[in-house]
Specification:
single chain, 233 residues, D-Maltodextrin-Binding Protein, domain 2, 12 helices
Length: 233
């Protein structure tokens, strides 16, 4: 992969984005509005295991970013996120398992998942059963794309691969992306879907947490911050 691969397409080579939001029971009976509500006594939070799930990793880091803003320190963030995970009854291995726990086993008051998943779940399982709630801040979970030259050269698919990725950024591609509940980069298409995609403040791992390599080492390596939080909860 070339060093400048992100510069080959707009928006750092990310044709769409999503973020961690809350799926709650219809009418939001527990009045869950932000990450800080998760530490209330008796509130049960369903989230996938950050050690085994990308969905869970983003959820954890979204909460950590909120906690940094709220407390102003790493120590404060660790305390708040520790209290949050004390209200997690069990850590499912992935997003699918967490969704099943919340929607079919009827366990928990709030499920943390990606916005596109929350919208889909609410619609497929019944809009009379669930609502999507948006926190004051969440994490940008953009999906980058790239043409891997060594692969396309071997298969003779360079032109097709390049054309496909360009299509993702085209108006037609962006319309499809919006229909699949991901936030398109095209401003006009995003505006036309404002009812589906309300404004929300987000941060990236790079700008707030020092990048994925640093996060992996400090939070998710064996014995890291996440393991320490789980052990002490």
């Amino acid at each position: 992969m070339e060093a400048d691969w992100r510069a080959r397409f707009r928006h750092d080579a990310t044709p769409y984005t999503t973020m961690s939001v809350f799926l709650v029971r219809k009418g939001n009976p527990k009045n869950v509005k932000d990450w800080g509500d998760f530490i209330r006594d008796g509130l049960l939070v369903i989230v996938p295991n950050p050690k085994t799930s990308g969905n869970g990793r983003y959820s954890y880091l979204a909460a950590w970013g909120y906690a940094l803003d709220k407390t102003g320190s790493e120590a404060g963030a660790r305390e708040l996120v520790g209290k949050l995970f004390a209200n997690v009854p069990a850590l499912d291995g992935g997003g699918r398992g967490a969704t099943t726990t919340f929607t079919q086993r009827d366990v928990g008051d709030v499920l943390v998942t990606f916005e596109n998943e929350a919208i889909l779940i609410a619609r497929e399982l019944g809009e009379n059963q669930f609502d999507v709630a948006y926190p004051s801040i969440s994490i940008d979970a953009s999906a980058p794309v790239a043409v891997v030259k060594s692969v396309v050269a071997k298969r003779g698919t360079a032109k097709v691969a390049e054309g496909y990725l360009k299509y993702l950024f085209s108006p037609a591609g962006q319309e499809i992306i919006a229909k699949q509940n991901f936030r398109p980069r095209n401003a006009a298409i995003l505006a036309r879907n404002a009812n589906k995609f309300p404004p929300i403040r987000t941060f990236t791992v790079d700008e707030k947490l020092g990048g994925w390599a640093a996060v992996q080492k400090s939070h998710f390596a064996d014995g890291g911050l996440f393991d320490q939080i789980i052990v002490s909860r």
